Amino acid sequence: MAKLFGLEFAPILIPLRRRIQTLAVMQWIASFLFLGFFCSLVFVYLCFTRLWPLAVLYLGWFVYDRKTPFRGGRRIESVRHWSLWKYFRDFFPLNLVKSCDLDPNKNYIFALHPHGVLCVSHFCSFATEGTGFSKLFPGLTPYLLVLDGHFSFPFYRDYFMSAGTCGCNKSSLEYILRSKGQGNAACLAIGGALEALEAHPGHYTLNLAKKMGFIKSAIRTGASIVPVFSFGENEVFVQVNNPHGSKVRALQQWLTKYLGFSPPLFHGRGIFQYSFGLIPYRKPVTTVVGEPLEVTHNAEPTNQEVAELHARYIAALQHLFETHKAEYGIPQVEHLKFI
Fold it and tell me: What pTM was computed for the model?
């Protein structure tokens, strides 16, 4: 590595395999952050060209198909198996580990932690076959639940759904668990947008203390809850210091309230230099899928039932973290914190 003007540049001679890995991550970052807006511009452009009838036809399809992202989506298995995702996996690298076998004749809520800045490991593990989900959990179909806003962009919504993603509201979650038969895993980053603001390297703060919605849905549908923790997810980006009470955090929380998504101020590395950019750092991330908590079905759960299951879940998540943290380089003095 060479340094010039305070920047740390990548070596000129890098194996082709690593270059392809970087390209795979670049396309994902560009798609996740910018493709929706680009597709919207393309749609508007088409409206003012001789191809406007196609735009009108697509608009009709958009309206007709508007509920699909909240009714299990429209996955395309060939997209989930693209070789691209294996290069994406190997960039970090990412790894998926199971603690036990899961019965394909049951339904599950995979509760994903931490959210991280961009849910890198969660996307690869549950919206693609990059880490081999179907081989580890034969008979289970994963659905990654993401912000509903992703499905507001023309064209992009169809591409994003092809990976098996769905909206993350309550009706979408419970539709998967009630109406798609058995052998389904609704995968949800529980901490949501606000937890992304806690995604700092070496920090393990989860937005979970008041998160009861997924608990209620589990009881209403009888789905087992599976704690999932990605060790290293918070290490792949560096976020601007934003402690609680600071002006930066206050602005971020205000924007989250009105925009529906959090605006973390973060950076990674660049294409040809390692000092700044939007590409994540090459940090290993291991996603450990814990043992399921069995849930007693009740269509009208009481507050006591919800509170008891929530406490059980937090205890199970803490056990999962404490059991594996040393293996993945986390000091024994570090523990999960809940807000």
Answer: 0.94
